[in-house]
Design goal:
Strands 1-8-7-3-4-5-6-2 form an eight-stranded mixed β-sheet. Strand 15, helix 18 and strand 16 form a beta-alpha-beta unit. The protein has three domains: 2-22 and 143-244, Glucose Oxidase, domain 1 (3-Layer(bba) Sandwich); 36-137, PtsI, HPr-binding domain (Enzyme I, Chain A, domain 2, Orthogonal Bundle), CATH 1.10.274.10; 251-542, TIM Barrel. It is α/β, with parallel strands linked by helices. It has 21 helices and 16 strands. The radius of gyration is 24 Å and the shape is globular. It has helices at residues 36-60, 64-78, 80-91, 96-114, 116-120, 122-137, 160-164, 184-192, 227-246, 296-308, 348-351, 353-368, 384-396, 409-413, 415-420, 429-436, 455-471, 485-494, 506-514, 518-530, 534-542, and strands at 2-5, 7-10, 13-20, 151-155, 171-176, 196-198, 211-215, 220-223, 260-265, 277-282, 314-318, 373-378, 402-406, 424-427, 475-477, 498-501. The protein binds phosphoenolpyruvate and magnesium ion. Phosphoenolpyruvate binds next to strand 10 and helix 16.
Length: 544
């Protein structure tokens, strides 16, 4: 047996034979002469085949985030400039596989140079290249293996096209050599409830078919376990999932202190299982892949669909969180050297106020015709003045409950002032970590700074929760940290009033809260706050 170490990215244990993602096709040697017309036709056929395949995967994707990324990939592959550039390369003597490879290499370099969101899309371009080359060569599309029985999927990293169609009954767990805890792989694994470990470089040395177990909480991966151990691990996991599926009811500590357990969704498709309400409705999905903003009527219909699914329950709608690092063509934003620090979130309204006012009007119209309790919040707020202006705009539109996300340390430091004019705060720990530690949230190499157990992050959350208690206003957490069952105890102990997460994460958090009294949560929170390192904070809370 060999113990390998990675970073736990989606909790739960799983075991089984490992199989690697099908390798990308090898590029054959360049031919001496080419039939230009035939090669151009091959490129067009390959583009059609890849677009069809990605569209099919988007239509059957198990979550809206994956579907959204796949549709963006379809637009990339159908971009006319790609075919035009491939034609030029073929006129210069290249065959179809080399032409698409060369063209995508140019796009790749441009994406990398742009940095930020575009640099993160490089793996999508590599995936397109491999698919196009395979299609040109008449080979099967690279991707997820199908050994005909349950297994653990191993990959260097996973592209959205790989994860979109993952079947949790077949893929028992994921181990990747790269990626980080906020990477696409991790988010999809948590959404699907598949245990996962990322940044486990040594997994690539483990041969296909080897029996491996993984612990998605601790990041420990053990290669060469026995068949009995694998059976036991999976039986325990199944029992745990079944027990949790039976757990229900509102979030409460053992002594009945309420902590609402809410869902993070991108569309009504993401609502599964029992939820007390929605704590984060990400509205970006409506705006992606468009050259014009979504029409008012279309927005009203989309919001109404979600509100209608949650009668009598709370739905917190987040206004558009776009910007130069999540570019939307119709916003016409300039290319920025540091997009994460530029015009994004609420800041977009400085340049395009109508985008925000149309959205608020559409939310208000949809709220009128459904009986969900609609709250509205905005991302990327830095000052109390911005918060006050947003709240005023909401009230002008007839939306009585307005709040802001706490994602920028400046807002966390002045949480009491921010709360003066708004009704609630929702802490986005993904961005709050990024901006507090000056560590790009997608950078796997900085994963330890992005660990929610970092004492500095816990301090900022504590001061927001204290400001909420002083003002008598709710303070929730809607970043990935809320889904950690142990961290949930810290949050409850600090006075956080609601936790919002992927619906599949709710049962484990519900169970964890129900097993501790509020006083125990407070003691755990104090111990975590007093710790000097994430490991010490975690140990103080979990005893390991
Ligand atoms: C966050 O930043 O924690 C958050 C919930 O927002 P998003 O992940 O959509 O940026
Ligand atoms: Mg955010």
């Amino acid at each position: 047996m060999r113990e390998l170490r990675g970073i736990g990215a989606s909790p739960g244990a799983a075991a089984g034979p490992v199989y690697r993602l099908a390798p990308p096709p090898a590029l054959p040697a360049a031919p001496q002469t080419v039939d230009a017309a035939a090669e151009k036709a091959a490129v067009r056929a390959a583009v059609g085949a890849v677009a069809d395949e990605l569209t099919r995967r988007a239509d059957t994707a198990s979550d809206s985030t994956a579907a959204e990324v796949l549709r963006a990939q379809v637009l990339m592959v159908q971009d006319e400039t790609l075919v035009d550039a491939a034609d030029t390369a073929i006129d210069g003597g290249a065959d179809a596989p080399h032409a698409v490879t060369d063209v995508l290499a140019v796009h790749r370099a441009a994406f990398e140079a742009a940095g930020g969101y575009l640099a993160e899309r490089v793996s999508d371009l590599d995936d397109l290249r491999d698919r196009l080359v395979a299609a040109c060569l008449g080979l099967p599309m690279p991707g997820v293996p199908d050994p005909g029985h349950p297994y653990l999927l191993v990959a260097r990293d996973l592209a959205p096209a790989d994860t979109a169609g993952l079947d949790p009954d077949l893929v028992l767990g994921l181990v990747t050599a790269e990626g980080g805890p906020t990477s696409h792989t991790a988010i999809v694994a948590r959404t699907l409830g598949i245990p996962a470990v990322v940044r486990c470089a040594d997994i690539l040395e483990v041969a296909d078919g080897t029996l491996v177990s993984l612990d998605g909480a601790t990041g420990v991966v053990t290669a060469g376990v026995s068949a009995e151990t694998a059976t036991d691990v999976n039986a325990a996991r199944r029992a745990e999932v079944e027990r949790r599926a039976r757990s229900h009811g509102p979030g409460r500590t053992a002594d009945g202190h309420p902590v609402a357990l809410l869902a993070n969704i991108g569309s009504v498709r993401d609502l599964t299982g029992e939820v007390e309400g929605v704590g984060l409705f990400r509205t970006e999905l409506l705006y992606l892949d468009r050259t014009d903003p979504p029409p008012y009527e279309e927005q009203v219909a989309a919001y109404r669909e979600v509100f209608a699914a949650l009668p009598g329950r709370k739905v917190v709608v987040r206004t558009l969180d776009a910007g130069a690092d999540k570019p939307l063509p119709f916003l016409n934003l300039a290319v920025e050297p540091n997009p994460a620090l530029g015009i994004r979130g609420l800041r977009v309204a400085r340049q395009s106020p109508a985008v925000l006012t149309t959205q608020l009007a559409a939310i208000a119209a949809a709220a009128k015709s459904a009986d969900a309790e609609v709250w509205v919040m905005t991302p990327m707020v830095a000052t109390a003045a911005e918060a006050a202006a947003f709240a005023e705009s909401c009230r002008e539109h007839g939306l009585p409950t307005a709040g802001v996300m706490i994602e920028i340390p400046a807002a966390a430091l002045r949480a009491g002032h921010v709360l003066r004019d708004v009704d609630f705060l929702s802490i986005g720990t993904n961005d709050l970590s990024q901006y507090t530690f000056a560590a790009d949230r997608m950078c796997g190499d900085l994963a330890e700074l992005l660990d929610p157990w970092q004492p500095a992050l816990i301090s900022l959350i504590a001061s927001c929760a204290a400001a909420g208690a002083a003002a008598g206003k709710p303070v929730g957490v809607c970043g990935e940290a809320a889904a950690d069952p142990h961290f949930a105890l810290v949050l409850a102990g600090l006075g956080v009033t609601s936790l919002s997460m992927a619906p599949r994460s709710i049962p484990a958090v519900r169970e964890s809260l129900a097993a501790h009294t509020l006083d125990e949560c407070r003691r755990i929170a104090e111990a975590a706050l007093a710790a000097d390192t994430p490991a010490a904070a975690r140990a103080a809370a979990t005893g390991r």
